[in-house]
Amino acid sequence: MSRRYLSQALHEYPSLRVEDASEGAQHVLQECLEQHDGILTLPHRYAGRTFCKPGKRLRLRKSDYWPDYMGGTGLDELWMLCTTPIVTGVIDQRTGEKPFREGESHVVTASDTLVSLQELILAAPELVIGPKVADFSRRTFGYPTWPIVSKKFDNENPIPHHLHWMKWEVYDINEWDNPGINPSHYYTTAMGLYPGVTRDDLLRCMRSFGKGDYNGVRYLSPHTLMRLGYGFTMPNGVLHAPTGLCTHELHVLMDEHFLAEDRTLDGRISADVAFLACREQDYPAAYRGDWEHLVNKLDFAANQDPNFVRDHMLPPIPAPSFSGDGATGTWIVYGDFLGEQKCSILRLTLEPGASIKLPLETPAMFFINSGKGKVGKLQVKLHQSMQLGKLYPEIGFITQAAVDAGVVVSNKTGDKPLVLTLDFPQFAHSVTPGLSA
Question: Taking 90 as the threshold, does the pLDDT of residue 2 lie above it?
Fold first, then answer.
């Protein structure tokens, strides 16, 4: 079958052709599955937020954090697995439009072309994401897709105080993404509201949005030190201003937010930008700028929960089924969240010479934190000073085809530990990690 290619390119890879898999995707999928026995290689997808500055810990070459076509916006996010459009407000100066398929995951083919992961999922859902995940996504979104997003955000300063009307998220702040950070650091995240804050207090802040030096909304929030190596769960509807540390994040498949403060260390924020990523079904455009409506919509009970940090910060715990013979598995995010098994994050460390067959029940996304080794037949290695336009084997997707065949991770060639992180979707485990059977 002849291959067809789109006229557009991904902004990071202008010289790599993007396959048109809207028809004949089965053939392309089969080629990708055969390349590494069901392990798909995912290219790095970078994005920038107009209201943030890069923290420069995504291991890019320094000059590549500020592409000349981004209109002055720097790259501060790495979208590792995402099958839905994202909302940044950035315009690609080369096209005059938002970047083509911004943030959306693609798969590297054997001929170094790129093909949409979502198109491959639609071609054979049960083969790529498996029957359990396919059924869940059909019930939840109306079509088969990967139901969570895996990304990293890396900012020089805290992200503006904001909330998500519907999007829950979880965090993994680790030493590999933040080299040289002293455990006795002062990196804090503002969360929720102090117990004594009233609706009138918050309304005064919001009514002053854009009218003075600063609307002061973050003064109403307690600030929590974020512990390296710990997980954290952030429910939707709770105000938060994530700290200026590089953070691995999982969240439900959507990209929406409201920005609550009008000024940060990175500059001023207009009301238009504050509401830019609000979806119509969550916060109708007719109410944008109606601060009383916004304050009344806020869940004060959730924002003023006195046990919020205690209930949402997760110390790492052993993962016995992913451990043994030189392999050590550790759960970073686990347990139930908002009443059910939302997602989980596993850190896997293999000493030199070690290998382990992964006890997987569903597909999973993975990326490398340190060292080099193999996941199935895919060789992975951590890189430094990466360049836009080049491909690096650091991020992968374990398909259902690979799960059925069995996936072995090995560190046979490295002289130091191989460290990987695995991200699992909703209901990936028959027994929820961290809970008794």
Answer: no
Q: In whole angstroms, give the CA distance from residue 87 to residue 328.
A: 37
The torsion defined by the Cα of 364, 369, 373 and 377, in degrees rounded to 10, comes to 30
Of 127-141, 329-343, 423-437, the range with the lowest mean pLDDT is: 423-437
361 closest CA partner among 419, 407, 410: 407
**pLDDT-derived band at 85, boundaries 50, 70, 90:** confident
The residue type found at 223 is H
DSSP state letters, 283-297? S-GGGTT-HHHHHHH
Rounded Cα distance between 393 and 69, Å, is 25
Q: Which residue has the tokens 């990293």?
A: 152
pLDDT above 90: residue 183: no
State the burial class of residue 267 (Cβ atoms within 10 Å of its Cβ: 0-12, 13-18, 19+): exposed
Pair of tokens at residue 33: 């599955």
Instruction: Identify the helix (H) or strand (E) that includes residue 30.
Output: helix 25-35
- Both tokens of 80, joined, read 């590792």
Domain 1-317: what homologous superfamily? Jelly Rolls (2.60.120.10)
221 to each of 162, 191, 233, how far by Cα in Å? 12, 6, 17
pTM of the model: 0.96
- Return the domain boundaries, the chain: 1-317, 318-424
Q: Is the pLDDT reported for residue 269 higher than 90?
A: yes
Same fold, 1-317 and 318-424: yes
d(CA 280, CA 278): 6
- Average pLDDT in the 50-62 region? 95
Looking at CATH, the fold of the domain delimited by 318-424 is given as Jelly Rolls (2.60.120)
Q: What is the CB neighbour count within 10 angstroms for residue 410?
A: 18
Residue 147 near residue 136 (C-beta atoms within 8 A) = yes
Spatial neighbors of 22 by CB under 8 A, at least 6 apart, are 119
Q: Exposure of 68 by Cβ count < 10 A (0-12 exposed, 13-18 middle, 19+ buried)?
A: exposed
